[in-house]
């Protein structure tokens, strides 16, 4: 990391950033260019590894790409704030932010694990316990990304 003064090294601090984010951008291999898509997500720690959970319709380009190559990168960011210094003649500006990037491998979730994974997604967006229509699980694919490497960065 070029700016080591902004690096987040404590895993608990990285997890706090993830909790604040509401979108995870997932990048998949698609030949000449990467294919990137914004997704809602849930998260949990399992055997000291971060697991990110996603869901979507039963068909689509992302599943074709995952079937060919299940390696993926991801990025999420939050706490954006424009910082300007008009007192200086050059009128400098920068952006405050918190971000996390990483990579890992994607696995499709079997039917019997869908409910728990979808509950993790709901938990990420609702602090209270919110139920959902379980009949939608039949039309939904749920997949997870097992994080192999992660790094965080903060600028305040």
Task: Give the topology.
Layout (H helix, E strand, L loop, with lengths): L6 E2 L2 H10 L3 E5 L6 E5 L2 E5 L2 E9 L3 H8 L2 E15 L6 E17 L2 H15 L14 E16 L1
Antiparallel strand pairs: 1-8, 2-3, 2-6, 4-5, 5-8, 6-7, 7-8
Record keyword descriptors for this entry:
8-stranded antiparallel sheet, 156 residues, 8 strands, alpha+beta
Description:
The protein is α+β, with helices and mostly antiparallel strands and about 160 residues long. Helices cover about 20% and strands about 45% of the residues. The protein is built from three helices and eight strands; from the N terminus they run E-H-E-E-E-E-H-E-E-H-E. The chain has helices spanning about 10-20, 60-70, 110-125; strands spanning about 5-10, 25-30, 35-40, 40-45, 50-55, 70-85, 90-110, 140-155. Strands 1, 2, 3, 4, 5, 6, 7 and 8 form an eight-stranded antiparallel β-sheet that branches. A hairpin with a 6-residue loop joins strand 6 and strand 7. The longest helix has 15 residues, at about 110-125. The radius of gyration is 18 Å and the shape is globular. The two termini are about 15 Å apart.
Distance between the termini: 17 Å
Class from helix and strand fractions: alpha+beta
The major pleated sheet works out as: 8 strands, antiparallel
How would you state the average pLDDT, rounded? 91
Tell me the number of strands.
8
Helix content: 10-25%
- Give the topology string: H per helix, E per strand: EHEEEEHEEHE
- The geometry reads as globular
Proportion of residues in β-strands: over 45%
Q: Radius of gyration from the CA trace? A: 18 Å
User: In terms of per-residue confidence, which ranges show pLDDT below 50 for 5 or more consecutive residues?
Assistant: none
């Amino acid at each position: 990391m070029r700016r080591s003064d902004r690096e987040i090294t404590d895993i608990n601090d990285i997890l706090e950033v993830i909790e604040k984010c509401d979108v995870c951008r997932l990048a998949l291999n698609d030949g000449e260019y990467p294919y990137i898509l914004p997704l809602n997500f849930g998260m949990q720690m399992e055997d000291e590894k971060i697991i990110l959970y996603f869901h979507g319709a039963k068909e689509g380009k992302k599943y074709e790409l995952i079937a060919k190559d299940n390696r993926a990168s991801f990025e999420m960011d939050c706490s954006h704030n424009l910082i300007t210094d008009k007192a200086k003649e050059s009128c400098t500006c920068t952006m405050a932010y918190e971000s996390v990037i990483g990579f890992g491998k994607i696995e499709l979730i079997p039917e019997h694990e869908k409910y728990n994974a979808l509950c993790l997604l709901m938990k990420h967006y609702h602090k209270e316990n919110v139920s959902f229509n379980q009949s939608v699980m039949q039309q939904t694919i749920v997949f997870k990304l097992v994080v192999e490497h992660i790094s965080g960065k903060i600028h305040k």
